[in-house]
Write a structure and sequence with these properties.
Elements (H helix, E strand, L loop, with lengths): L4 E5 L7 H10 L4 E4 L12 E4 L2 H7 L16 H4 L13 E4 H15 L1 E6 L9 E4 L3 H8 L9 E5 L6 E8 L2 E10 L2 E5 L4 H13 L5 E9 L2 E9 L10 H12 L3
Parallel strand pairs: 1-2, 1-3
Antiparallel strand pairs: 4-7, 5-6, 5-7, 8-9, 8-11, 9-10, 11-12
Helix pairs in contact: 1-7
Length: 256
Amino acid sequence: MKRPTWIVEHFSDINGFQYLAQSVKSAGRSCIVVTDGEIPRNLKHPVIYQGSFELIDKLGLTEEDYYWKTTEKFNFSSYAQVLKSFLLNKDYRFLTLSDFAASSESIVSQQGAVFIRPDSGLKSFSGTLVKKESLAEDLKNLLFYDPPLDSQCVISSPKTLHREWRMICISGHVITGSQYKKDGKFALDRECPNDVIHLAESIANSYQPDTAFMIDIAESEEKFYLIELNNFSTSALYLADTDKIAAELFKITEPN
């Protein structure tokens, strides 16, 4: 078994992939940084991949390679019951997108607004608020990119979020993380309160969809909750400690 080549796609300064590439190179490993979406020539497998969904298809990654992708285990419906006590949106219900669109006026009028997101971790549309006063416009925006109308969606009441963190779990342990939003705007910060770390550890002890994955946590009304779980290989790292991430992945992917 030989050491894999790392392929890290750098397409945004926010996602933190460039820091992972630096950590890998500093540790003396081979790392190809892709900046233009082009496939590296004469690519030798196995590889470890961190980047966009789009480049995965171009690379033709196989079972020989290391990439931790979105599977059905990342569907909200797959972990909602197991992790319900931790959830931000405990009041969830499921509807197809077509059923929601057909009944949206009735649904929204009961609460004034609802939050809707895809059940699938592949996210055919972005989670969004649909409000009574802007119902027609909100529906238009929701359907703008033609998401599948038969796809299952998660409906819940709106929540006010103060801060949001992404915590990274590898081999059953919360390794590192960072804040990525404050009051709805991107606000990167390496600090992770102990309550956030402890919540992430409790979640990881209860449900592990993959060897490496992301746990997104929010502060709402001075309490901390699980927003969702995300795959590792195509999710932003923000200001997480990439030296720690690389060290843990070396253990998984390299011969002893």
